[in-house]
């Protein structure tokens, strides 16, 4: 996938994620697979697992990132976070772009799973498109609270172009 066809919000989020070649990364909600391709391209010995509840999103992500799937660098699963049992012993980074799980309902169990599987110093990055200020405040507040309740140290980053906000929880 050519970098110019990847939306600016996805490029910004992956840049903030700061993927290192040996990282083990989990993406929650793969959408069209654009972030997966960017992250996988930055990995060397590291691995990326991508999950999504949408079978169509999983199929598309596998198709557009076939080279990374074939190399073993990328695993794509049709599953939601609540039922995921992470097969790796460690995760360095977890991220999601515009995934509403963390602000629309109680997600304590999912966040606890992430805290358990992250290495010390590992991070959870939750990125949201900032379309309406009142909505963004609520997203940041609820997501930050969920992460803090699970024991994460929480910070935020913001971008004006594209209009994005990121909540980062560090274990």
UniProtKB/TrEMBL annotation:
Q: Name one Pfam family in it.
A: Methyltransf_25
Indicate the secretion signal residues. none
The Methyltransferase domain sits at 25-122
Q: What is this protein called?
A: Methyltransferase domain-containing protein
Which superkingdom is the protein from? Bacteria
Instruction: Note the InterPro entries from the entry.
Output: Methyltransf_25, SAM-dependent_MTases_sf
